[in-house]
Write a structure and sequence with these properties.
The chain is of the alpha/beta class. It folds into two domains: 8-58, no CATH class; 62-224, Rossmann fold (3-Layer(aba) Sandwich). 33% of the residues lie in helices and 22% in strands. It has helices at residues 36-43, 76-85, 126-134, 148-152, 154-164, 186-196, 211-236, and strands at residues 8-10, 17-19, 60-70, 99-107, 110-118, 138-144, 169-175, 199-202. The protein has a six-stranded mixed sheet with strand order 4-5-3-6-7-8, sandwiched between helices. Strands 1-2 form a two-stranded antiparallel ribbon. The longest helix has 26 residues, at 211-236. It is elongated, with a radius of gyration of 21 Å. It starts with 7 loop residues before the first strand and ends with a helix. Bound molecules: guanosine-5'-diphosphate (GDP) and magnesium ion (MG). Magnesium ion (MG) binds at residues 76-77, 95, 118.
């Protein structure tokens, strides 16, 4: 995490102590007028473009590590590619080694970088898993709804995480819902997710169904957790 200022101000909207900057780090409320140079820039006639937050407004940078686990060929790589590159390729190229993909986005006042770890499939050995999961913020356990064995194996991945890592946010993903046939019904998968205390979502990497939603949940939950720990640090340091 990199914070640009060490001066604290009270946010008039949420009442929390926030680092002095253009936006409140807790609720996003504008705390200060943008620098004069930015104002001048804004007053110039601007081309009409899709409204995107500018780099100047994203002040707090966080990096979140998300690890994908699941059986071979359930669609882990396809989901990640769909999210990071917006594309789907029907050919199957097995993933042999863990590979990192990244995606950066700006949600003022935050700049978020996801490091998304794709794995080869199957249970990694304990040493590899410890390295992979020890520093993970979130884990995504993928099965395909048309292959029951990949669903039955989910518990092994879940137990591995619980044994080796303090990953706080876990999602189970039922992929390939576009195929039109199933060996696992939604209700059954939801039931398992409830038992494990994790969230469930169904996706199609082919159609792009729920891919953004899957990652938005990661973003929201990881950010919530990170901000809670910043808040605890502030309390410990007597700042709030
Ligand atoms: N119909 C369908 N096929 C998919 C989907 N996701 C992946 N696939 C296909 O399933 C195969 C394995 O996908 P891949 O992403 O490599 O699986 P991984 O081994 O878990 O990374 C490939 O042929 C993909 O084209 C999906 O949502 N729907
Ligand atoms: Mg793969």
């Amino acid at each position: 995490m990199s914070l640009i200022s060490r001066e604290w101000v009270e946010c008039p909207k949420c009442g929390n102590k926030a680092l002095k900057s253009e936006f409140c780090m807790w609720c996003g409320n504008r705390l200060a007028e943008p620098a004069q140079s930015q104002v001048m820039e804004a007053r110039r006639p601007q081309p009409v473009v899709e409204s995107k937050p500018s780099a100047a407004t994203a002040l707090y940078s966080y990096n979140f590590k998300v690890v994908f686990l699941g059986d071979i060929a359930v669609g882990k790589t396809s989901i990640i590619k769909r999210y990071t590159q917006g594309l789907f390729t029907p050919e199957y190229y097995p993933t042999f080694e863990s590979t990192v993909h990244s995606k950066t986005m700006e949600v003022p006042p935050f700049k978020i970088e996801f490091s998304i770890w794709d794995t080869s499939g199957g249970l990694p050995d304990e040493e590899k898993a410890g390295t992979l999961l020890g520093t993970a913020d979130a884990a995504v356990l993928v099965f395909e709804v048309s292959r029951r064995s990949s669903f039955l194996n989910l518990k092994n991945y879940y137990e591995l995480i619980r044994r080796l890592a303090p990953v706080s946010y876990i999602q189970v993903v039922g992929n390939k819902i576009d195929l039109g046939f199933r060996q696992v019904q939604t209700a059954e998968a939801e039931q398992l997710a409830r038992e494990l205390g994790v969230q469930y979502i169904e996706t199609s990497a082919v159609l792009g169904t729920n891919i953004e939603r899957l990652f938005n949940r990661n973003l929201r939950e990881c950010l919530k957790k990170r901000l809670e720990s910043v808040r605890r640090e502030m309390q410990r340091d007597g700042i709030s």
